[in-house]
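Protocol step 4 of 6: structure prediction from sequence.
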Amino acid sequence: MKLHIFAVLCASLLCVLPAAGAELFSYDIVIDAPSEIKSLLTQYLDVVRLRTSERMSAEQLSRLVDATPDEAARLLETEGYFAPLITLTYQKDQNPPRVLLRVSPGELVRVDDVQLSLQGVLAENAKELEQIRSQLLSAWSLPKGAVFTQKGWDDAKKQTLSLLQEKGFGAASISQSEARVNPDIHTVEILLALDSGAAYRFGEVNITGLKHYPESLVRDQVKFARGDEYRRSELVNLQGWLHDLPQFSLVVVDPVLSPTPPYEANVNIDVQETPRHKITTGLGYSTNTGVKSELGYRFLNLADRGWISESKLRLEQYEQAAETSVTFPRQSSGYEHRVSMGYLRSDVENLLSRTWRMGISRQRQDFNLSRTWSLEYLAERRDLADGTKENPKTLALKFQWLRRDVDSVRDPRQGTLLQLEVGGAHEKVLSDATFLHLYGRGVRYWPVGPQGVVITRVELGQTFANEQANVPSDWLFRTGGAGSVRGYDYQSLGVESGGSIVPGRVLATASLEYQIPVYHEWRAAAFVDHGSAAGRWGELHGVTGAGLGARWVSPVGVLGLDLARGIEKQQWRFHVALGLAF
């Protein structure tokens, strides 16, 4: 009996599954249509998508052919074509069968009239009603004369509803939405009715998930108070600010709208904490500073106030550094403050420099824009190859402005990076010299073709001072190496003095690079760099480096490997760089 059942099952399976080696049913399909329409039909029509299906048969193809004209018409309507001419020819006697679809999309349908009405509590105040209605119409994204598409229609409704909810009507909804298309004259009349619901105000803020960090860490980021007019954007911003704090790995901010008076929007904030202690280590190699190792420790709840304490030790072949700092939680103004102190020893191009520093800074980060004020006391000792010793000291104030407008932080192909700095000191305020420091750097990404990219970089700087010996190296300029003029050693371009290369008061560099994909995440690059640093502009004689390189788009950024020729010194140098230009 069991054997008989097994035989029946095997026979059934053989009827369903194709025999080994059996050819799949195939057919040809040709779509004759304008390019933008052809791509839409090719991507979504079932007769195209199911062409390679193992279940395809002559009967299945016949059903798809019958449904294709209506399916194509519905797809064209989403792009604004409501009166297309569609013809389909099915040549089933050919081997293989052939489907020919010809589409003439016709004229696009355009918006002829927009009627927007508001209902609910908002309608009780005629002045406010007309004011908000006028604002919604001004922001309406499908005005008269615009091409009517399904995506445009959906986006316009969503945007209008969001704008009304942003006016304090958190429970606003769409009570009617209708698009009346007249395909004969290629127009559409839009009717949209919104029910404002009640006007809401912020209520209580409830926080859950905290175990090790103080509640003030979260509450200090809340910029609204109970009784303030409800704004959805405030919650979106709050979630972003909290998520940026290193103390939290996950943050969810949800409003709870009361259905009865008083109409309050209580806010529930649920956080998931990160570990308070973190130790980091690193081992690597830099073509600028040689073999390197790093050790770092971070504690995220100093004094049980959510202060961030960080200590770092970095040992490299040509540079060694130690730093410790305390960063205070960001205030409701958006600024965070930091105090730090550190030491740096550098032995590059026969210049031995030892620098001690301590300072405070105030920074605000808004999406792609960063602004930083800092006040730092710096004492340096410079030893030149001929025995000359310099001991500049300064108390300097600096402002840095940094903007990143790129399409991708990990792998930018279009956009701009811009950095500007201004700083200075006065000899009567804990400084050996009076100086004014100006610096600017810009990088532009230009997409070329489907995958290529051209990168241009310009860097300019000048420190106005009577003499550079009394100005610390941090406020002067040297260049050369990865990220500047490739083909030359790290910081080998500057002022020759006492057998050493010391930093100068002026800087100018520029770069042009072209990248093209070669295999998966790998690109080939060709580049040319030019520039130098000097004591004054009349002494600046730029040098040129050119070469070829490879780029790997890694999970953490673009890794660059370059082989460059220093034209003036007739030398080859290898450079490695990771990440954005800055």
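Step 5 (inspection) to follow. The radius of gyration is 33 Å.
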